[in-house]
Amino acid sequence: MQRILGVLIVLFVLDAGSAAAQDVPPSTGNEVDVFDLWRKVRHKEPAPDDASWDYRKAMKAFAPVIGAKPSSGALVGVAGNIAFYRGDPATTHISSMVASLTFSTKQQISLTDRIALFTKDDRVRVDADHRFQWTSLETNPLGTSADTSDSIQTGFDFFRLHHTAYYRLRPSLFAGGGLYFDTHRSVGPHDDEETIAWQDSAYVSYSEAHGLPLDAQSSAGVSADVMWDSRDSFINAQRGWLAKVSYRALFDGFLGGDSDWERVNADLRTYRPVTASGRHKIAVWLSADLVVNGVAPYFDLPATGQDTYGRSARGYREGQFRGERLAYGEIEYRGTLMRNGLLGMVLFLNTTTASSLESGEKIFDSFATGGGAGLRVSINKRSKTNLCFDVGFGKAGSKGIYLAIQEAF
Predict the structure, then answer these.
(1) Where are the domains of the chain?
(2) Distance between CA atoms of 339 and 141, rounded to whole angstroms?
(3) What would the DSSP string read from start to end of 360-392?
(4) Which one of 2.40.30.170, 3.40.630.30, 3.40.50.11930, 2.40.160.50 gives the CATH number of domain 6-405?
(5) 48 CB contacts (<8 Å, ≥6 apart)?
């Protein structure tokens, strides 16, 4: 079982970042973020709080990352968020890009970015998920009743290119389609000591049972998507709903795909204030990720922590539970610790259930429940971007420390 031993994020505020923060929209109250503190430390004038701002200027937040975990050793890198408007904020949602670059002492490299772009008046929305990783992951049998204490560390090179474009049919309602490509190359035991054990790993057993190659597996195809999104912001929603249904068809031979299979994903999220001030609210997330036909490559099966932003199932490591069908639910309380919004906190509870055709386990037969708490630091009050530090716990002693820029959902 992989356990994250410790991670530390230190805010990194450059002169350029301080200047950029002065170009963003005015806040609606007496909020304070780390840029305000930085200006105060440097005896600079506070950022102007009037209506003269240029909404086309980007809102920026950066945080260097220092950490350690058994699978990677020491970890260093940088993460950042850039938010901006492509039209009048009164009629256009905020756009955002979250990116990170990390290096580890075990020769693991990860470069990722996720983009959500709204054109003027929300006429078109474009989502993108790009990942370039030279990494490893512990592999386990399928299902949430699987014993994950004796995992096999499997190394691979992972490349992802996901793009989805939506057209607005009416306010909050979007429809569109996407192109998806995932490939895992140079798959094998991460350490020479695990070469013998790897031959009996869950990855090898599943791949051989379904006639999939062992050294590399790819998936590629298209999607049809419908989405209702009435949230005021996807960076840190204060209110509204997200309801999305996506159907994907992946094809053998298309862009190197290794099998024909189909996938349906349903995602529902809502955000409700519980006080008139809005300082306390409840967020709920429900999702189902189902392989409905064909055989998916092992690493493309639905799994914990493999949503777009990798924030589901806090309390468990990425891929700890995996199956042909997976359902997930989470409820999170969000509150501010300071009236100026600089510090906040969350309490969360989640549960995952996954199936295994091989063992006969069905979805909802067993559950992996997790929970925990976290702190929030406002690093850009205009875009409502937070630095997130969470500690999560799960069954059988599973636990983890999670750090990110932008809320979990």
Answers:
(1) 6-405
(2) 47
(3) TBPTTSS-EEEEEEEEEEEEETTTTEEEEEEEE
(4) 2.40.160.50
(5) 22, 26
Q: Of 55, 75, 51, 50, give the one whose Cα is nearest residue 65.
A: 75
Which residue's structure tokens are 């980007």? 58
Q: Are strands 124-139 and 240-250 parallel, antiparallel or unpaired?
A: unpaired
Model pTM?
Answer: 0.84
* Residue burial 71-95, b: 16+ Cβ < 10 Å; e: rest: bbeebebebbbbbbbbbeeeebbbb
To 10 degrees, the CA torsion angle through 305, 306, 309, 315?
Answer: 0
* Of the candidates 240, 238, 237, 257, the residue with the CA atom closest to the CA atom of residue 248: 257
Q: How many helices (H) and strands (E) does the chain have?
A: 4, 17
Q: CA 306 to CA 24: how far, in whole Å? A: 32
pLDDT in 10s for each residue of the chain, 409 residues: 333 333 333 333 333 333 333 333 444 557 888 877 877 787 776 665 545 556 777 888 777 777 655 445 567 888 888 888 998 888 998 898 989 898 987 788 999 999 999 999 999 999 999 999 999 888 999 999 998 887 888 999 999 999 999 999 999 999 999 999 999 999 999 887 778 888 889 999 999 999 999 999 999 999 999 999 999 888 889 899 999 999 999 999 999 999 999 999 999 999 999 988 888 999 999 999 999 999 999 999 999 988 888 889 999 988 999 999 999 999 999 999 988 889 999 999 999 999 999 999 999 999 999 999 999 999 888 888 888 889 999 998 888 888 788 899 9
Phi, psi of 140 (to 5 degrees): -140, 160
Asked if residues 226 and 245 have their Cβ atoms less than 8 Å apart, the reply is: yes
Long-range contacts of 193-197 (CB under 8 A, 24+ apart): 194/152, 194/153, 197/152
How many residues are given for the chain? Answer: 409
